[in-house]
Amino acid sequence: MKRTLRNIMLGLMAWSSILIASAQQSSTTAPKVQPNLIPSEKATHPAPAGNAQGKTQKNSVGKGALTVTTVQPVDFWQEQVAFAGGGMVTTDFLYDPNVGVLYGYREDDFKCSNGQPASGGILEALYTSDNKSGKPAGSGWWAVELDAGKCAAKESGIYGCKFDASGNSTACGAATINSSTGDIDIVAVQ
């Protein structure tokens, strides 16, 4: 009986070390992206700037798999936003006051963690000071769609991160956009 228990324990220890090594290996090869985030002041003032254009009511923003939809039409506009590096990028904004989230979508350049440049759609959400989920204003998430091989992605799909009010990543990995909450779900933490 003691010998059987010992063999079981040794077997479990061997499997756990394999799983830990596998998890460490996948985290080092996970796709990492470093997009420029929407300026955090938008979280406290989620309204169109003076240079905004195309003001209307819509219930979605984004393209293809990087689209978020609101329950009812809300304020939509486009504006030129200055991001780190000095570039001005046209960004589509959708502000949902019903949940207190400002969404932004743009086609832009971003960096992979290995320093290689990449380009594509970026969908971002900022929780505003009046958000209904009690999240800190300025926290949120971003998502990009990557082809296999881009930014070390092994598979094509959506990848993203949740971040705190200081812009620090709190959870990253393969992601899905949750149409019922307007949030992202990190389905494979990396």
Describe the model.
A hairpin with a 5-residue loop joins strand 8 (about 155-165) and strand 9. Strands 1, 2, 3, 4, 5, 6, 7, 8, 9 and 10 form a 10-stranded antiparallel β-sheet that branches. The protein is mainly β and about 190 residues long. It has one helix spanning about 1-30, and strands at about 35, 55-65, 65-80, 90-95, 100-110, 115-125, 140-145, 155-165, 170-180, 185-190. The chain has 1 helix and 10 strands. Mean pLDDT is about 80; it is low at about 5-30. It has 2 domains: about 1-30; about 30-190, no CATH class.
Radius of gyration: 20 Å
Strand content: over 45%
Q: How many separate domains?
A: 2
What is the structural class? mainly beta
The biggest beta sheet, please? 10 strands, antiparallel
Tell me the series of helices and strands, N- to C-terminal: HEEEEEEEEEE
Q: What oligomeric state is this?
A: single chain
Low-confidence stretches: 4-29
Total helices: the number is: 1
3D shape: globular
What is the overall pLDDT average?
A: 82
Between the first and last Cα atoms, what is the distance in angstroms?
A: 40 Å
Query: Care to count the β-strands?
Result: 10
Helix content range: 10-25%
Brief sketch in words of this structure:
This protein is mainly beta and 190 residues long. Helices cover 15% and strands 49% of the residues.
How do the helices and strands line up, and which of them pair or pack?
Elements: H1 2-29, E1 33-34, E2 53-63, E3 66-82, E4 88-96, E5 101-112, E6 117-127, E7 140-146, E8 157-163, E9 169-178, E10 183-189
Antiparallel strand pairs: 1-5, 2-3, 3-4, 4-5, 5-6, 6-7, 7-8, 8-9, 9-10
